[in-house]
Amino acid sequence: MLARDLMTSNPATVTPGDTLQHAAALMRLRGVGMLPVVTDQASRRLVGVLTDRDLVVRHLARANGPTGHVADCMTHLPLATVGPEASVEALADLMVRHQVRRLPVVDTHGALLGVVAQADLAIHVGRGDARLVEQVLEGVSRPAALVH
């Protein structure tokens, strides 16, 4: 199984200039905790990601009000990404190494094709390789260093 077989194709995206309120509303509407950030909706060139944690830790926890733009708190490149031909093992290794639950899938030009989430591994790989899914869950759940 490859990344292209697991990924959610054409995920909802935001741009750096979109408001945080728009991004949060889109997360709520789509039931997701991460939005890829692209330069524009036409090229869909990946420039970062915005997570629900970014909104809270990088924006609200710093006493910023409810206004702002995606660029104010997004995670910028370089990001852990994979190509559509990446194997399940390669995906799992990247998720553990970078302690991320979601990996953008990009083409050779950096255009967003989709997203593979930890849940996709559990759903599509779990029965065949529960050990791999368990390793990813454990690896991405290790406490990270505190940010001051």
Identify the CATH class.
Answer: Alpha Beta
Low-confidence stretches: none
Q: What is the count of β-strands? A: 6
Strand content: 15-25%
Name the helix and strand elements from N-terminus to C-terminus, one letter apiece.
Answer: HEHEEHEHEEHH
Strand order of the largest sheet: 1-6-5
Please indicate the count of domains. Answer: 1
The proportion of residues forming helix, as a percent range, comes to: 25-40%
- Given the structure, what is the number of helices? 6
Q: Whole-Å distance between the termini?
A: 40 Å
Most strands sheet = 3 strands, antiparallel
Mean model confidence by pLDDT: 87
Describe the structure.
The chain has 148 residues and is an alpha+beta fold. It has a single domain, classed as CBS-domain. The chain contains six helices and six strands; from the N terminus they run H-E-H-E-E-H-E-H-E-E-H-H. The protein has helices spanning 3-6, 20-30, 52-59, 88-98, 118-125, 130-141, and strands spanning 8-9, 34-38, 46-51, 75-76, 102-106, 112-117. The strands form two sheets. It has a three-stranded antiparallel beta sheet. The protein has a three-stranded antiparallel beta sheet with strand order 2-3-4. Strand 2 (34-38) and strand 3 form a beta hairpin. Helix 5 runs antiparallel to helix 6 (130-141). It is globular. The termini are far apart. 32% of the residues are buried. The mean pLDDT is 87.
